[in-house]
Design a protein that fits this description.
single chain; mainly alpha; elongated; repeat; membrane
Length: 696
C-alpha cells in the first residue's frame, strides 16, 4: 500500500506505529488518540471510520507481526478517544481484536487482551453483543502457557463480569447456555475453574434465574466435580449447594425434575465418592419435596439401584458405610458451610436408620462432631461469588453464615441425642454410656473455651433439654460439676443452668417437679442440684425459692453476711429480684398473703432487700412488693409467737407422708459452707500469686 492509502495517518505515524519498540508504538497510539479527539470535536465521523477501517483491516489483520501489535494498541487508543461515540464503530473494534486472541505469537495474544480490556471499558454494555465470542476466546486463554497472556485474560474476565452484573437486565442468558453446555465438558483445570466462576456469578443474581437451565449443565458440573484439583472440587461443591438451596424455594416445572433425576441416578453410580455422595444427597432432597413425588415414581427402580449399593459391605468399588463415614467426616472437618450441613444431615440420617451399623463409627465421629460445636469459622458460604456479587448480596454473607452455624450445631445435638438413646445395655436407664461421656466432654469444652460458653452455652443446653429429658440433663450436669476443681467455672455454669431453669419454657415440667417435691425421686433431684448449686449462693437461694423451702432460703440469706459482697454478687441478687416478679414465681408472691405461715419467706426477702443498694430499681421493686404484705409491720413485732405457731404446724405436717422430711437441711448447710470455704481458699491463692501493680 502507498502512503496515500493510509491517510489520514501520515507515513511517519504508520512507520512509528509498526516499530519493533513498544515505546515508539505507544507514542504513535497517543498521536492517534489526539487526532481522533480532534475529529470527534468537529464530529467528523467519516474520517474516524476510515481510520478504524485502516487499523482493523491493514494492521490488526495483517500477516506482519509488528503491524498486528501496532494495530491492536492503535485501535484501543482510538476507542478511548471516541468515548461514548465508540459504539458507532463497534464492528471495527471488537471482531478484529478477537481474531488475534488465538494468534501464534504470545505477544500478539497479550496485546489483544490489553486492547479488548480498553475497548470494553469504553463500550461497556455494547460489549455484551459479542459476549459469546469473547467468552469462548477467554475460556481458551485462561489456560495459555504464557503467564502474561493468562494474566491479561483474567483481567478481561473480571471486567466482563463487572459489566454483566451492572447491566444484568440486558444480558441474554438463554443465548449463552448453548455455548456453556458445550464448553463445560473441557478437561483443563483452569478452564473448569473459569466456567465454575461464571456459573456461580450468574447463579448469585436472581434476575438470571439459572435454575431453569440447570438440567442442561448439571451433567457437565458433575464432570467438573470429579476434577482431581481440590479447589475446583470445593468450588463446584459450593455451587451445587447453592443450586439446591434455590431449587427448594423456587417454582420449577416437573419435567425439569425428571431430567435432573436421570442425571442424578447416573452420577450416583460414579466411582468418585464426592460425585456419588452429591448425587445421592440431591435424590434424597428430591424425595423430601412433595412436588417431586409424582415425577420420581417412574424412576423408583433407578433410585433403588443408586442407593442400595451404597450400603453394601462387599469389598468392591462401591461406597460402603465406612467409606461414607470417612467422606462425611472429611466434609464436616474441612468442607464449606453448605456441604458441612449436608454432611451432618447425612450423619443424622444414618444414625436414625442404621443404628446398629453406625455403632462402630461413634468413636470416630465423636471428636469431629464436638469440633463443630466450637467452630469459630467465619468462612462465607458465598465466597466464590461475593467478588462480583451486587452489594446487597454481599451484606447477606454474615447473616447466612450465622444460619449455617446454628443449623450445624442443631444437627450435631440431634446426632448426639440419637447416639445417647441407641443400643442401651441397661434397660433401667434412659440413656447409654455415651450420654454421660457427652456431658463430660461438653463440660471440658466449656471449661477450656469460655468464648463458646458465653456465645452458645445457653443455646446448647436448652436444645439438649428439648431433645432429651431435661431432668436427666440437669442431673448429669449437676453430678459432673459436683466435684469440679475450677470453682469459678462451676459458679458460672450454675448461674447459666439456674437462669435456664427459671426462664425456659422447655423446663416447665422440671420446675413443677422441683416446686412440689411430691416424690422421693424429686427430693433426690433437689439434693443433687443443691450440692452443685452451692457454688453460686444466689442461684442456691433461687432454687430454694423454686422448691418452696423458704426456711432454708432464709437461713442461706442470713449466711450472706459471711460472703464478700461484690458488684457481680449484687447484680445476681438484682436479677433474682426481677425473676421473682415474673409469672414463674406467682405462687411465691401469693404465699406472701399467708403471713402467719410464711414468716421465713418474708424474712428472706427482707434480707435480700437489706443487701441491695437503696438507689437501685430492684430495691424499690422488692420494697413495694413487701409493702403489699398484709399487716407487714405488726406481724414482725410478734415474730416469736409466729415461730411458735410454725413449730406446731410442722408437727402436724410430720403425720403426712412428705418427701421433704427426708431432706437433711442441716447436712446440706454444712456442705454449702464447705463449698464456700473452698471458693474463699482458692480466691486467696489467686490473690497470693497475682502480681502487684509495682511488679513485685
Amino acid at each position: 500500500m502507498s502512503d496515500r492509502d493510509y491517510l489520514p495517518l501520515s507515513a511517519t505515524l504508520v512507520k512509528t506505529l509498526t516499530d519493533k519498540l513498544y515505546e515508539k508504538r505507544k507514542a504513535a497510539a497517543l498521536e492517534i488518540e489526539k487526532m481522533v479527539r480532534e475529529l470527534i470535536a468537529v464530529q467528523n465521523y467519516e474520517q474516524i471510520e476510515r481510520i478504524c477501517k485502516i487499523l482493523s483491516e491493514h494492521f490488526v489483520l495483517s500477516q506482519n507481526g509488528n503491524f498486528r501489535r501496532g494495530g491492536l494498541i492503535g485501535i484501543a487508543a482510538l476507542a478511548i478517544a471516541c468515548g461514548r461515540e465508540a459504539q458507532r464503530f463497534k464492528s471495527y473494534l471488537v471482531p478484529p481484536v478477537l481474531q488475534c486472541f488465538l494468534d501464534n505469537d504470545p505477544k500478539v495474544r497479550y496485546y489483544a487482551c490489553e486492547s479488548l480490556y480498553n475497548i470494553a471499558k469504553v463500550l461497556r454494555t455494547i460489549t455484551l453483543s459479542y459476549f459469546n465470542e469473547i467468552f469462548d476466546c477467554l475460556s481458551k486463554l485462561v489456560c495459555d502457557l504464557e503467564p502474561t497472556v493468562k494474566s491479561g485474560a483474567e483481567l478481561c474476565d473480571r471486567l466482563l463480569k463487572d459489566i454483566v452484573i451492572e447491566t444484568c437486565t440486558q444480558f441474554e442468558v438463554i443465548a449463552f447456555i448453548p455455548l456453556l453446555r458445550e464448553r463445560i465438558y473441557v478437561r483443563n483445570a483452569f478452564t473448569r475453574q473459569f466456567i465454575v466462576s461464571w456459573v456461580s456469578l450468574l447463579t448469585s443474581v436472581p434476575e438470571f434465574d439459572m435454575v431453569q437451565y440447570l438440567p442442561e449443565i448439571m451433567d457437565g458440573l458433575f464432570h467438573i466435580l470429579g476434577d482431581p484439583n481440590p479447589e475446583i472440587r470445593k468450588s463446584c461443591e459450593i455451587l451445587f449447594s447453592e443450586f439446591l438451596t434455590i431449587l427448594k424455594t423456587s417454582q420449577v416445572q416437573p419435567d425439569m425434575f425428571e431430567d435432573m433425576t436421570r442425571i442424578l441416578i447416573q452420577n450416583s453410580q460414579s466411582s468418585d465418592d464426592l460425585i456419588q455422595y452429591t448425587a445421592l444427597h440431591w435424590l434424597r432432597e428430591f424425595l423430601n419435596m412433595p412436588k417431586c413425588h409424582q415425577v420420581l415414581l417412574p424412576h423408583s427402580a433407578g433410585l433403588l439401584s443408586a442407593v442400595l449399593p451404597c450400603f453394601s459391605y462387599e469389598d468392591d468399588n462401591h461406597m460402603t458405610i465406612t467409606k461414607m463415614v470417612e467422606v462425611l467426616k472429611t466434609q464436616i472437618q474441612s468442607g464449606a458451610s453448605p456441604s458441612r450441613i449436608i454432611a451432618l444431615g447425612w450423619v443424622h440420617h444414618l444414625f436414625e436408620c442404621l443404628q446398629d451399623q453406625m455403632a462402630s463409627h461413634i468413636d470416630v465421629l465423636f471428636p469431629t462432631l464436638f469440633r463443630v460445636l466450637s467452630d469459630p469459622s467465619d468462612e462465607s458460604p458465598t465466597s466464590v461469588t461475593t467478588a462480583y456479587s451486587p452489594p446487597l448480596l454481599r451484606k447477606k454473607g454474615s447473616k447466612q453464615q450465622h444460619q449455617y452455624t446454628t443449623e450445624a450445631v442443631l444437627l450435631v445435638l440431634q446426632v448426639f441425642a440419637l447416639i445417647s438413646t441407641s443400643n442401651r445395655t441397661n434397660t433401667d436407664r434412659n440413656y447409654n454410656d455415651y450420654f454421660t461421656k457427652f456431658i463430660i466432654v461438653l463440660m471440658d469444652l466449656f471449661r477450656t473455651d469460655r468464648s463458646l460458653l458465653e456465645a452458645r452455652g445457653s443455646f446448647i443446653i436448652r436444645q439438649l433439654c428439648m431433645l432429651l429429658s431435661p431432668e436427666d440433663i440437669y442431673k448429669t450436669l449437676s453430678e459432673t460439676l459436683a466435684n469440679e476443681p475450677d470453682t469459678n467455672f462451676a459458679s458460672i455454669m450454675v448461674k447459666i443452668l439456674s437462669s435456664i431453669l427459671l426462664t425456659s419454657t422447655e423446663l416447665h415440667d422440671l420446675r413443677i417437679k422441683l416446686k412440689n417435691l411430691q416424690t422421693i425421686e424429686s427430693a433426690d433431684l433437689f439434693v443433687c442440684l443443691y450440692k452443685t448449686w452451692c457454688h453460686n449462693p444466689v442461684a442456691l437461694v433461687a432454687l430454694c425459692f423454686l422448691s418452696q423451702n423458704y426456711d432454708h432460703a432464709c437461713t442461706l440469706v442470713q449466711l450472706f453476711a459471711e460472703i464478700e459482697v461484690t458488684v457481680d454478687f449484687l447484680i445476681e441478687i438484682d436479677k433474682l429480684v426481677q425473676l421473682l416478679e415474673s409469672p414463674i414465681f406467682t405462687y411465691l408472691r401469693l404465699a406472701l398473703l399467708d403471713v402467719e405461715n410464711n414468716q421465713t419467706l418474708i424474712r428472706a426477702l427482707c434480707g435480700l432487700l437489706m443487701l441491695l443498694p437503696g438507689k437501685t430499681d430492684a430495691f424499690h421493686v422488692l420494697r413495694r412488693r413487701l409493702e403489699c404484705v398484709p399487716n407487714f409491720i405488726d406481724k414482725f413485732t410478734s415474730i416469736d409467737k409466729r415461730l411458735a405457731n410454725l413449730s406446731i404446724n410442722s408437727k402436724e405436717k410430720e403425720t403426712i407422708n412428705d418427701p421433704r422430711k427426708n431432706i437433711n437441711f442441716d447436712e446440706l448447710q454444712q456442705y454449702y459452707l464447705s463449698i464456700q470455704n473452698r471458693h474463699i481458699d482458692l480466691k486467696k491463692q489467686r490473690y497470693r500469686y497475682a502480681p502487684t501493680s509495682d511488679g513485685l
